[in-house]
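Batch job 17 of 40 flagged for manual review because the log was empty.
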Amino acid sequence: MSAFRKLDDLGDVSGKVALVRVDLNLPMRDGDVTDDTRIRAAAPTIRDLTEKGAKVLLLAHFGRPKGERSSTMSLSMVVGAVEEVIGKEVMFVPEIAGDVVAQAVGILRPGDVAILENSRFWKGEEKNDPEFAKAIAANGDFYVNDAFSAAHRAHATTEGLARLLPAYAGRSMQAELEALDKALGNPEKPVAAIVGGAKVSSKLDVLKHLVGQVDHLIIGGGMANTFLAAKGVDVGKSLCEHDLTGTANEILDAADKSGCTVHLPYDVVVAKEFAANPSSLRTCNVHEVAADEMILDVGPQAVEALGDVLKTCRTLVWNGPMGAFETEPFDMATVALARTAAALSKEGTLTSVAGGGDTVAALNHAGVAEDFSYISTAGGAFLEWMEGRELPGVAALAK
């Protein structure tokens, strides 16, 4: 990963205007923010800049208004939640560029904060229109990107502005990039990757990239069934993409060539119906799955063996659950493996980086999220990074 400018590289910014891209795409219910995680992620950057006397203008998108104004997607709805987290008054500006923003900047004192309107109300945002970016940049002195979750999109506020103003990574972006570098950029070996989730099709590029990068690839979730079927195992009624068994075999061959060991479950938890604690629940060898049964989790013997694999590793990247973890008892493998990884991380023998919505939910469910070295809240950006792609919003911050 190329070097990028951080907030520590800023000179005197007192009275200067910082255009700060954050992630305020927050979950709402009845007009109230239900989870302020993303605001808390941006708070250190906002505090840092306000304490240095900058005037901070927050840029963000909210929902998918497709270039039209919509009262239900106005960022005015999140102002109260932002004020609560950062502990100071926040001005709302109903525009993103032009005279109205210039007037707001004139009213703001050094150390004040304003939120500009939803960047996606303007078609120029998603088109990364240079004129639109120029109009926004006209009211700022420098640009800070603190939204890794939007860094995989080349939009005006994630990429365009970085080309027009001195650009820096915010605190949460910096933490994310440093953690990702430790996980796959420049990791301590041996490296293990756990990839789970329902479908191989959604993570094909991830799997293809990882077999050339890691020493151990642990495949769980529904996608493991497709790999088992590729190896000639009858997976019964299990979720399985039978049309992708050829691709699964290609990935296994590529792993073989690059010296990556692929771990598939050899004992599994099965049931005839997908429900909590079904009467037909049993654990069996993968070769004993009946035609009317479905595989819903990795079995205890495989989980123990995988725990032993993690004990030999120094780095772990995790994306996706091992089984249908939302329904008990099919959360057993995910929880057990997460607890092993967390204990190793706490001991200091393993650097563990996890990302993606389901993964974060699974680690919280296991009660171990706090003990992982780093948890990325980004979904699409984290996956694209695992695919080895360059993220436009990150590339634009390079020195």
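Reviewer: the log was empty due to a logging misconfiguration, but the result itself is present. The mean pLDDT is 94. Unflagging and moving on to job 18.
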